[in-house]
Amino acid sequence: MGMSLPHRLTEQASDYLCRMTQLPPDTFPSVQLPSRASAARTGLVVATAATLLAMALVHVTAFTASKAALASIGLLLLGVTLLWERLPRHYPHHRFGACNTVTLLRAGLGATLLTPLLLQDSDTTDAQGWAIVLVASLALSMDGLDGWLARRDRLTSSFGARFDLEVDAALALILSLLVLDAGTVGPVVLVLGLMRYAFVAASWGLPWLAAPLPDKSGRKVVCVVQIAALIVLQAPIITGSMALAIGASAAAALIWSFGRDILWLWRHRP
């Protein structure tokens, strides 16, 4: 009654082999297939190992290997722990898949940017600035690949979409803190890093803000503009009025996007 279809099928195959060969029952023990959560978690472990390897490579080639690197690894492992806990309840597929592996790799690249944020080495500011541009650009260039892989492999899910969204939000926050630390743009840059978290916090008191939103291409474009602007602001050659203009323009676009969504949610609240 409570046995899943794959398990019933494997037991039927075992019984069939025994009847055909006239061997005693249980000669061919039924295969116990891994559960959906177990298989997905195994994929998560493999993807985590690959991501940690990529992070180590980035630290060796782009950033100074130091105790600060441990913080970036800790940040990734915190995210992996949350994924581990949520996979059984929220992920509907048996495979973690290449799509989620790419998203986790993007998360790892974003986490490595915590290292230069914690390092205070004025002698390598320019070199680290260009390294940040390179690493963040790689993370941004992979955005969209995970969604394409999910559709190709039929592994689309609300879990994967939320995973991708949270990785983008964390990347934006770290990049905005790096810009603030560099001093090229004032506190206005925090709008680009904190808007998503302010929206989520507001939904705790206003539940109608947590309702699902219709898919809008404009929202995706603004997200790319937001992160692209934060990456450009990492470049040592972007200073003064140019930096302020880029930061203010991206912040205005993000405020417009969130404002439009809030207005839609208000009009459709229960």
In short:
With 270 residues, the protein is mostly helical. It is built from eleven helices and no strands. The chain has two domains: 1-33; 34-267, Four Helix Bundle (Hemerythrin (Met), subunit A) (Up-down Bundle).
Count of helix runs: 11
Q: Strand fraction band? A: under 5%
Cα-based radius of gyration, to the nearest Å: 23 Å
- State the CATH class of the largest domain: Mainly Alpha
Low-confidence stretches: 1-11, 25-33
Average pLDDT level? 86
What does this structure look like?
- The chain is globular.
- It has 11 helices and no strands.
- The longest helix is centred in the last third of the chain and has 28 residues, at 240-267.
- Helix 4 runs antiparallel to helix 7 (145-152).
- The chain has 2 domains: 1-33; 34-267, Four Helix Bundle (Hemerythrin (Met), subunit A) (Up-down Bundle), CATH 1.20.120.
- By secondary structure, it is mostly helical.
- The protein has helices at 5-21, 36-61, 68-90, 97-112, 114-118, 125-141, 145-152, 158-182, 190-205, 217-232, 240-267.
- Helix content is 73%, strand content 0%.
Spell out the key features of this protein:
270 residues; mainly alpha; Four Helix Bundle (Hemerythrin (Met), subunit A); 2 domains; globular; disordered N terminus
Protein topology:
Blueprint (H helix, E strand, L loop, with lengths): L4 H17 L14 H26 L6 H23 L6 H16 L1 H5 L6 H17 L3 H8 L5 H25 L7 H16 L11 H16 L7 H28 L3
